[in-house]
Design goal:
Blueprint (H helix, E strand, L loop, with lengths): L1 E5 L6 E5 L11 H7 L4 E6 L15 H15 L3 E8 L1 H12 L3 E8 L12 H20 L2 H8 L3 H7 L6 H11 L13 E7 L3 H8 L9 E5 L7 H4 L1 H12 L4
Parallel strand pairs: 2-3, 2-4, 4-5, 5-6, 6-7
Antiparallel strand pairs: 1-3
Helix pairs in contact: 1-10, 2-3, 4-7, 5-6
């Protein structure tokens, strides 16, 4: 995995954790060009989903999170001002905070979902699921992007710009395996100043996340009109930067 940095002359840090199958370049550059004017921006490019490392293989959310923590400790004095997780990047960010070694001032999970992960009683059924689901993801990503755009409430152009379509089957398979039995741990929201962003196309996920408040999980939830899953960072970079500034200053 690699880390790309911009605006290193700035004292405040903004670390971006990308979504599942997402590529950071060129889709995130309009936002980065705005954010680097005031933040030291760090983007983590995951193994298996990075054009600069086409032979790398994705292993798990935990592996990405642990490497990110090591990077924060070794290069950023163990501190991050804003940790911005997009879709699956929210899960990676969650694990970064729970690791406990890095200090995160503000956590923003954009497109966060708590949809239940599958568990299986019998190994042969689990293997069938892994093979079948991996094949579906690979096919949709590489051959049927229109269906993916429809499911996510986005355009084909947006999908092609933001997703890594050169992914190999091993990375897909490993990602499916890493989901099995994964347990969401929400006490990370109580360990920092936390925000959850959803687009208007994510009503089901937003409702599920909102129920966490009744369980004592502390965060601020924001919905955005005419926005698909994890699309906020692509749709209006200047507005998103203002939202991040507002969250960091705790002015919601």
């Amino acid at each position: 995995m690699k880390y790309f940095e911009f605006g290193k002359e700035n004292s405040k840090t903004l670390m971006i954790e990308c979504g599942y199958l997402a590529k950071w370049y060129p889709g995130l550059m309009p936002f980065i060009d705005e954010a680097k004017k005031k933040y030291h921006v760090i983007v983590q490019a995951y193994d298996g989903f990075n054009e600069d490392e086409p032979d790398s293989v994705f292993h798990s959310v935990m592996a990405e999170a642990q490497d990110a923590v090591d990077f924060i400790i070794n290069n950023l004095d163990g501190k991050i001002d804003v940790l911005y997780g997009i879709s699956m990047g929210g899960m990676v960010s969650n694990e970064i905070i729970l690791d406990g070694r890095a200090n995160v001032h503000t956590f923003i999970a954009d497109g966060y979902t708590i949809m239940p992960m599958p568990t299986f009683r019998f190994k042969f059924i689990e293997n069938l699921y892994i093979t079948g689901y991996s094949s579906i993801i690979y096919s949709v990503l590489t051959k049927h992007q229109g269906l993916l755009a429809l499911a996510l409430g986005r355009t084909k152009e947006s999908i092609r710009e933001s997703l890594y379509t050169n992914v190999n089957k091993e990375s897909i398979r490993n990602s499916v395996i890493s989901e099995i039995g994964y347990k969401y741990k929400f006490n990370s929201f109580n360990m920092t100043s936390s925000y959850v962003f959803h687009g208007s196309a994510e009503i089901v996920a937003a409702r599920k996340v909102h129920k966490l408040k009744k369980k004592g999980v502390n965060f601020i939830h924001k919905m955005f009109k005419n926005t698909g899953h994890a699309e906020l960072i692509h749709k209006n970079p200047k507005i998103l930067l203002k939202l991040i500034d507002k969250a960091y200053k705790n002015r919601y």
